[in-house]
Design goal:
Helix content: 25-40%
Structural class: alpha+beta
CATH architecture: 3-Layer(aba) Sandwich
Order of helices and strands: EEHHEEEEH
Strand content: 35-45%
CATH topology: Protein Transport Mog1p, Chain A
Largest sheet: 6 strands, antiparallel
Number of domains: 1
CATH class: Alpha Beta
Radius of gyration: 14 Å
Number of strands: 6
CATH superfamily: Mog1/PsbP, alpha/beta/alpha sandwich
Length: 127
């Protein structure tokens, strides 16, 4: 399951995905996603510079990625921030915000990512 929102001006992409493609932990899912990103033929993302953080999301261990890159046939720098957190039944949630790496866009990206993280609900058992 994946849902993606594009801002009306095309400046931001926000996506949330729930799947089991790369494993059932935040660490496995983020490593698998990064491997896919590094395959330029598949992702069209080039010159990745990745910073990985451990964090918490919904009270659970999570992985936060900051990815600087550019599209393969373009030179304009971009930045993508993502958080991965495991839910129940082996699903991992991936939340991302992607934009051009300008100071104005990055400031707004920080706000969008913080708001999206605060609103992210995952399927954790309550028993």
């Amino acid at each position: 399951m994946q849902s993606t929102w594009h801002s009306p001006d095309g400046a931001y992409d926000l996506s949330v995905k729930r799947d089991r493609s790369y494993g059932s932990t935040a660490q496995a899912a983020s490593a698998g996603q990064l491997a896919w990103y590094r395959d330029i033929a598949e992702s069209s993302m080039a010159d990745l510079k990745v910073t990985t953080h451990t964090t918490r999301q919904n009270g659970r261990d999570a992985v936060w990625l900051e990815i600087e890159y550019h599209w393969a046939k373009q030179s304009e720098p971009r930045k993508r921030v993502e958080v991965f957190v495991a839910g129940e039944s082996g699903y991992v949630y991936q939340l991302l915000v992607d934009t051009e790496a300008t100071s104005q866009r990055l400031a707004e990206q920080d706000r969008l990512f913080a708001t999206a993280r605060a609103s992210l609900l995952i399927d954790i058992a309550t028993t």
